[in-house]
Amino acid sequence: QVQLVESGGGLVQPGGSLRLSCAASGSAFSTYTMGWYRQAPEKQRGWVATITSGGYTNYADSVKGRFTISRDNAKKMVYLQMNNLKPEDTAVYSCDANIGGRHYWGQGTQVTVSS
Q1: What is the spatial distance between Cα 107 and Cα 64, in angstroms, rounded to a whole number?
Q2: Starting from the edge strand earliest in sequence, which strands make up the sheet with 18-24, in order?
Q3: Per-residue pLDDT averaged across 73-77, rounded?
Q4: Residue 10, CB-side half-sphere exposure with 13 Å CA sphere
Q5: Residue 75 DSSP class
Q6: What pLDDT digit, counting tens, does each position of 27-59 carry?
Q7: What is the pLDDT of residues 52-73, one digit of tens each?
Q8: What are the angstrom distances between the C-alpha of 45 and each of 13, 27, 38, 71, 95?
Q9: Average pLDDT, whole number, for the chain?
Q10: Within a 10 A sphere around the Cβ of 7, how many other Cβ atoms?
Q11: What's residue 109's pLDDT?
Q12: 26, exposed or middle or buried, with CB in 10 Å at 0-12, 13-18, 19+?
């Protein structure tokens, strides 16, 4: 079983930046497809970004050009660099590990974008 722990959330003004981190367990971390999802109040969880074991990345249109997903396999970490944040980015952000089609989730970290 994989455990995921997110950190790095907080309150930031519009236009600001945050870097989210996700610490993962699992000896085969380098083979996992990792992703970030977010859930705003009273909305369904939505996909934000994915990075494959080979480093291929993909982003939701709403964050493309502003967010960057990356990974450090040696440290078993996944990151989400978020720039030019907007109020509509406010949500709980969760790390996801896709292992053979089975998904594992962390508890999430709150990101609030407000002046």
Answers
A1: 24
A2: 4-7, 18-24, 77-82, 67-72
A3: 96
A4: 11
A5: T
A6: 899 999 999 999 999 999 999 999 999 999 999
A7: 999 999 999 999 999 999 999 9
A8: 23, 28, 5, 22, 12
A9: 96
A10: 13
A11: 98
A12: middle
Write the single-letter amino acid at 7. Answer: S
Residue 97 CA to residue 3 CA, distance in Å, equals 9
Q: Is 72 helix (H, G, I), strand (E, B) or coil?
A: strand
Instruction: Give the integer Cα–Cα distance in Å for 64 and 60.
Output: 6
Tokens describing residue 50: 């994915």
What pLDDT, on a 0 to 100 scale, did the predictor assign at position 1?
80
Contact 31, 43 (CB under 8 A): no
Residue 26: pLDDT band (50, 70, 90) is confident
The pair of structure tokens assigned to 107 is: 């508890």
H or E element, residue 7: strand 4-7
- Sole residue written with tokens 């610490």: 23
